[in-house]
């Protein structure tokens, strides 16, 4: 069985949702506190020297990291969790999958730990990054034209990112100025709660 090393509500939630949606069994290992020195960090470091979550220990004892890579691994087993090959939605799925990881995801690292990147001006960095993230969400809102999910009636692995984002900045109230995202987050939240209690 796959082991997911993560923290409830953090980035590992994305991989948990993907595995759940794909009906792939897994065991969750809570490594809360991994971002500071201590036993959780030491445990995680033995599996992933970068000390990042999610870190997955696969059935064959290989280690898998990076949510986009995990999404591709899940698609190998469940290709129905992305739009079909040959359709325009497939290219948009691929684009948004990488875009979310390359653009939105890093803003949380910088805003959550601004003192690491700008020790002389952490609050200014945090403010700037949050404003930049808002501009990214506004762009994403303009790309989401299907309903009720990112690509229409079909839930995809990109929706796992959107569902998790509902608990991160700017929070549900902040998403209200971006109605397409806001509606999807609510739909996804209801869908996943009905699918499996989280």
From TrEMBL:
Question: Start and end of every GST C-terminal domain?
Answer: 86-198
Assigned EC number: 2.5.1.18
Q: Which InterPro entries match?
A: Glutathione-S-Trfase_C-like, Glutathione-S-Trfase_C_sf, Glutathione_S-Trfase_N, Thioredoxin-like_sf
What is its EC class?
A: transferase
List, alphabetically, the Pfam families matched. GST_N_2
Spell out the PROSITE patterns in the cross-references.
Answer: GST_CTER (PS50405), GST_NTER (PS50404)
Output the Gene Ontology terms for molecular function: glutathione transferase activity
Keywords assigned: Transferase
Residues that span the membrane, as ranges = none
SUPFAM superfamilies, A to Z: GST C-terminal domain-like, Thioredoxin-like
Q: Where is the GST N-terminal domain?
A: 1-82
Identify this protein by name.
Answer: Putative glutathione S-transferase
What is the source species?
Escherichia coli
Ranked from the top, the taxonomy reads: Bacteria, Pseudomonadati, Pseudomonadota, Gammaproteobacteria, Enterobacterales
Q: Which gene encodes it?
A: gstB
